[in-house]
Structures are given as structure tokens and as C-alpha cells.
């Protein structure tokens, strides 16, 4: 019986360590605290302003994967005169994976020579607690994929575009997340609002497109979902209006013949 249990245990460990659960991901950085390594991955190997889906693996010093950790993180921006966090998720196991964890971070700004982001990890394995931290590089996004503003209710909001990541001439599935700043370290998700969209092509007479669907919340992930119609390739400005739960506009303006752009918008170019 002992031999059978030992053989089963070895087989399980072998499967964990021989399965490449990061095959379609690119390493961003490895963080070490002398006991474990934490490998951070994204699809493109970068962190940038806006929404970032991040995957991570924990490894022992011998390179073996850890599949039973409870992990949390705390992003912190060190500025010349202050510190603040950003919207971020909890960390859990990636769907269908054995030793790959996932979460998201929504950075409002890039770092520079004097100001930088720090990422702090706390995790437990069994009953033992560990921690690790590192500076991380956050770059500017190529196009505007995040807006931060003070609404008519005097609250600061952050709206981040999640999808489409690869837009095409079609009616694209669109996703965004809406956060409200509670304090410098806390950014809860906003529930029950509507994110109205009006995509326009400024270089083509500011024409719009048909069949767009405003974004509303759906599902347990509290993401906002809608439809974005793009009728040709080129540069698009996705004009936004954020409406609260009773339909009052918190920020953003309707597009008319005399008002060609909202004060809050995303950009797409393909």
C-alpha cells in the first residue's frame, strides 16, 4: 500500500511539472525571496497602462511547481509627493490549470525615472506565510484604453477597456470595467451603471457605425459587456458616456453635428 501511494504521489508531481501551462504566454519577470520564485506572465510579455490580465506560477528552489498556495497582491505607485494603488483583482487558479494562477491589474499611469510601481505578494503554503516584492515596469499604451475622471457626483472613476484586443471590421464583442475610487488604495467595481458608446472616425467626416450596443454589467465577474461596430479599418474614437443606475450621465457628452467628441473616450486603430 505504501508503495502504491508513493507511486501515485510521484505520478501527480510529475504531471504538474511536465505540463507546460504557460505555452501561450510570455515571461514578464521573475521575483525571488530566497525561498520561492514567482514568475509573472502576460500574453505579450509586457505591462502597460490600462487593463492587464496577468498569470503567475510559484516554484520551489529546485524548480518544482507549487499548486496549493493561497496568494494575494498589492500594487503601489511610488510618486514624488504621494503613493497610490490601482484597481486590482483577487488571485485564483486559472481555469482548467493545475499550478497556474491568474488575476488582473489596471494601471492608471506609466512609470518613469523617478516614479515607479511596486508589486507586493503575500502567500501561504500550508500554514506557512511568505512575502515577496519587486519593482515593475509599466509602459504607456499605444492607444487610449483607460479614462480617469471626476464625475458630476464628485467621485473619481476609472474605466478600462478589456476587449476587443484585436479589433476587426465586424460587430466586435466589447468589454470594459468600471471602478470608483474609495480612497488612494481602494477602487471597488461599480455596479449597475451603463457605459454608452458612440464610435466615430474623425478622419472620415466623423461618421459613426450601426448596431452598437451600450455596455451593461453581466455575469459574476462584474465586467461590462456590449457590441462595438467597426465598419472599416483605420482610426476610431470610441466616445463614451457613463450613466449611473438611474440613468443620469456622470461624465461624457452626446455627439452632435456641433459637438464632435466626448470628453472621455477610448481609441482603436487597426
List the helices and strands and how they pair.
Blueprint: H1 2-18, E1 26-32, E2 36-42, E3 50-60, E4 69-78, E5 83-84, E6 92-93, E7 101-107, E8 116-125, E9 128-136, E10 146-150, E11 156-163, E12 170-180, E13 194-200, E14 213-217, E15 224-230, E16 235-243, E17 249-251, E18 265-269
Antiparallel strand pairs: 1-2, 2-3, 3-7, 4-5, 4-8, 6-7, 8-9, 10-11, 11-12, 12-15, 13-14, 13-16, 14-15, 16-17, 16-18
Fraction of residues in helices?
under 10%
Structural class: mainly beta
Cα-to-Cα separation, first versus last residue:
61 Å
Please describe the biggest sheet, giving its number of strands, its sense, and whether it closes into a barrel. 9 strands, antiparallel
Order of helices and strands: HEEEEEEEEEEEEEEEEEE
Amino acid at each position: 500500500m505504501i508503495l502504491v501511494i508513493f507511486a501515485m504521489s510521484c505520478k501527480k508531481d510529475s504531471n504538474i511539472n511536465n505540463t507546460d501551462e504557460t505555452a501561450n504566454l510570455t515571461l514578464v519577470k521573475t521575483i525571488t525571496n530566497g525561498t520561492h520564485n514567482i514568475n509573472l506572465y502576460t500574453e505579450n510579455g509586457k505591462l502597460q497602462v490600462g487593463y492587464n490580465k496577468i498569470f503567475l506560477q510559484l516554484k520551489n528552489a529546485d524548480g518544482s511547481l507549487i499548486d496549493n498556495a493561497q496568494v494575494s497582491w498589492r500594487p503601489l505607485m511610488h510618486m514624488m509627493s504621494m503613493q497610490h494603488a490601482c484597481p486590482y483583482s483577487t488571485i485564483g487558479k486559472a481555469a482548467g490549470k493545475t499550478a497556474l494562477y491568474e488575476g488582473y491589474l489596471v494601471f492608471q499611469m506609466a512609470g518613469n525615472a523617478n516614479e515607479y510601481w511596486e508589486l507586493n505578494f503575500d502567500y501561504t503554503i500550508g500554514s506557512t506565510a511568505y512575502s515577496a516584492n519587486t519593482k515593475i515596469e509599466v509602459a504607456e499604451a499605444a492607444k487610449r484604453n483607460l479614462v480617469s475622471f471626476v464625475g458630476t457626483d464628485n467621485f473619481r472613476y476609472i474605466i478600462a477597456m478589456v476587449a476587443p484586443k484585436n479589433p476587426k471590421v465586424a460587430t466586435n464583442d466589447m468589454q470594459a470595467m468600471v471602478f470608483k475610487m474609495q480612497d488612494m488604495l481602494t477602487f471597488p467595481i461599480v455596479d449597475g451603471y451603463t457605459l454608452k458608446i458612440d464610435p466615430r472616425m474623425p478622419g472620415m467626416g466623423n461618421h459613426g457605425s450601426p448596431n452598437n450596443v451600450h455596455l451593461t454589467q453581466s455575469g459574476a465577474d462584474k465586467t461590462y459587456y456590449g457590441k462595438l461596430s467597426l465598419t472599416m479599418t483605420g482610426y476610431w474614437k470610441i466616445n463614451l458616456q457613463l450613466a449611473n443606475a438611474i440613468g443620469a450621465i456622470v461624465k461624457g457628452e452626446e455627439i452632435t453635428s456641433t459637438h464632435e467628441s466626448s470628453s472621455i473616450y477610448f481609441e482603436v486603430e487597426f
